[in-house]
Structures
1.
Amino acid sequence: MATPTDPETLVFLASRRLESAASPEYTMTSAMKHDPEHYDRAYMLCRGMGSPHSQCTGLPVDTYITPQHPLYKEFRSELLSGMDCMTEHRDESKCHHFTEGLYKKLTWKAPEPTTTQKAATFLGKLVGIKPQPTS
């Protein structure tokens, strides 16, 4: 799987809105929330209560955040391993196996039924017996 590096190709691929597990949740775009005044408000509230500047610098993180894409929850270890590899090596050719493995998991398709399974299904339809699922 070749990875495009040309900026025009990347923009084109991003604009195609491919349907896969890795595509963005466009329906959740309206749910995105960001409070740019969170830290200013929290700092002022802290100072207003009489706390010194040194106490008010370690403010809590804004808890009203945009929900993450489910991809991060489902494939956390693969994504983090790929990020760690790129952070360490900064070379796509050395970390390509992470992205390729993730791609294979995201575009998984059920295997084609074998000839034996096809024959069992056909004979089952003739006789009226449902075939047992194989694992």
2.
Amino acid sequence: MENFRKVRSEEATAGFGTKGGGPGPFADLAPGAVHMRVKEGSKIRNLLSFATASMAQPDTRAIIFSGCGRATTKTVTCAEILKRRLAGLHQVTRLRYQSVREVWQSLPHPGTTPGPTPGQKHSVPGASLSVLKNVPSLAILLSKDALDPRQPGYQSPSPSSDPSYLPMAATSKRSLREPAVAEGSLKGTQPEPRAAEEDLTA
């Protein structure tokens, strides 16, 4: 493929249980859920600002982050950050494959000009190539309402969302440093062996 360049990439349309889509992996999803389609070039800051504002509304009970291919890592990052911002979110993860069609166009040969040659009215377009690929697709559902814990991919609310989690960890680290300070203070009060021997000879 060194003589070709990718022109565009078209993803197959798949519903995720939201308005305007099919059943998808979340068939029993309540209406009004927000669907965030994460792309490879999406900005995490923009995605999270919109997701946080949407989940702050009482009518929004669930949100879905979905991405495929190289965007799967960014999809997981958005879901984990939102779980730390909003406590008590139930999570269900679905993993499947999605068809992506890539269109490639041939590059001009070295030494040739892209314009029309003398005697030609129009330039001959380069050869195009269409490739159909199956890439992993990830969909993460975060819901304010309790979900069925028996379904595959369910995760209960994380304890790290509790505000008292980090202070407890900080106090445990300080408690580990206290014996070291006390041990150093005891070393300063003990007399040195040479000084004790000089007192006995005197």
